[in-house]
Amino acid sequence: MKLSTRHLNAIEPLTKADIELIFSQADQFKEVLNRPIKKVPSLRDVTIANLFFENSTRTRLSFELAEKRLGADVVNFSASNSSVKKGETLIDTVNNILSMKVDMVVMRHSAPGACDFIAQRTNAVVVNAGDGTHEHPTQGLLDAYSIREKLGQVKGKRVVIVGDITHSRVGLSNIYCLQKLGAEVMVCGPTTLIPKYIHELGVQVEHNLEKALEWCDVANMLRIQLERQDTSVPYFPSLREYSAMFGLTQDRLNALSKDIVVMHPGPINRGVEITSEVADGSNSIILNQVENGVAIRMAALFILSQGLTRK
Known about the structure:
- The protein is 37% helix and 14% strand.
- The chain is an alpha/beta fold.
- The chain folds into two domains: 16-136 and 291-305, Aspartate/ornithine carbamoyltransferase (Rossmann fold, 3-Layer(aba) Sandwich), CATH 3.40.50.1370; 137-290, Aspartate/ornithine carbamoyltransferase (Rossmann fold), CATH 3.40.50.
- The strands form two sheets. It has a five-stranded parallel sheet, with helices on both faces. The chain has a four-stranded parallel sheet with strand order 2-1-3-4.
- Strand 1 (47-52), helix 2 and strand 2 form a beta-alpha-beta unit.
- The longest helix is centred in the last third of the chain and has 20 residues, at 286-305.
- The model has no long low-confidence stretch (mean pLDDT 92).
């Protein structure tokens, strides 16, 4: 039971069989998570370092919980409280941690390609928890898994990703994962937040939210990625105008000729890309995504651990 890649740094190189293997294993771990005793010793004696060079709440907690549910030894690293502040380089930081006999690294970094950089220079198995505007593979997996759980399958479903596509690593991972599983994908947002060459990925582009919602079975709402934008260049006049044009409200859902599934990878900016009424409403599977995140990350870590070279 192995993936076609040793590391999980992106969805793009994965095969459909890889994704289905992770989903199948996640199904088993979801059963474990619903038991009174939620732990299994699958990663006993495996040491995992969580290296977060960017702030994170849900992803970091989800990975840490997944690791502990599998019985792994967990080491947490935060750049804000480390020698990175003194000028230590990325490779020196990682090498120092790996010299402590760490087997796997879960890393979030602001630089696209940082996880590949580390994977090429260490013996540890690396899992990308988000690298700049590149990819966030486990989020793409858990989003597709949540659609499969809600609608029975991903193949043939129409999914629109709404928001800041240009700066979103979640959006790119979703596009790759959904397409590999046979879904149709559309992106929707202001022209300034849609990548110029997005058509080359085989996705449709729509700038009218009402038309996009009428087309889709699932709407995945993304927040504005202010921390990764060049703030000296305005991408839209104001958050108020963005919300008026691209915010998902209950009135917009009520105007549709059908029910759709509403998703959001978090963190939610309530009242901007989605209202509280919709986020907490019957169409939303946002909390299911959070729950599925632990099972997907357990599955990915367990399968990747099969490729460890233990001494």
